[in-house]
Amino acid sequence: MRRPSTAHCLPGLLILAVLAAGPASAASFRCAKAKLPDEKAICADRRLNDLDVELAVRLDVIKHLVPMGTRGALMDDQQSWLSARHQCGADHNCLTRRYDDRLEEINGALERVYGKGPF
């Protein structure tokens, strides 16, 4: 009997991790310590909070799947993205666009990793 590919299981695991994280806090920072306008907006809005949780989970997954040199570039890109997110302030539409764009980038990177499988 052939074992299912891990690549096919990862999207489902990501969804479960996002759901298990719950709506009360964002995964990438503590809402109780939120000081910046973008952080406060993320903590106050369920949709933004969910996007933040999804991004944090996907980043954690991809960090463990890519080589070290790629991991460094990925984290440099994330720091640049965080700076751009901060520029949105509390603008919900701007924050949503930033998250959608970043998730598209990360999802593309994950698809490239999955394509190289098996795991």
Notes on the structure:
The protein has a domain at 35-114. 73% of the residues lie in helices and 0% in strands. The chain is elongated and about 40 Å long. It has 119 residues and is mainly α.
Task: Provide a short characterization of the protein structure.
By secondary structure, the protein is mostly helical.
Question: Which features characterize this protein?
Answer:
disordered N terminus; mainly alpha; 119 residues
Mind summarizing the main beta sheet? Answer: none
Determine the N-to-C terminus distance: 17 Å
* Rg on CA atoms, Å: 15 Å
Oligomer: single chain
Q: Decide which structural class fits the backbone.
A: mainly alpha
| Number of beta-strand segments | 0
Low-confidence stretches: 1-7, 16-24
Order of helices and strands: HHHHH
Provide the fold topology:
Blueprint: H1 6-21, H2 37-44, H3 46-63, H4 68-87, H5 92-116
Helix pairs in contact: 1-3, 2-3, 3-5
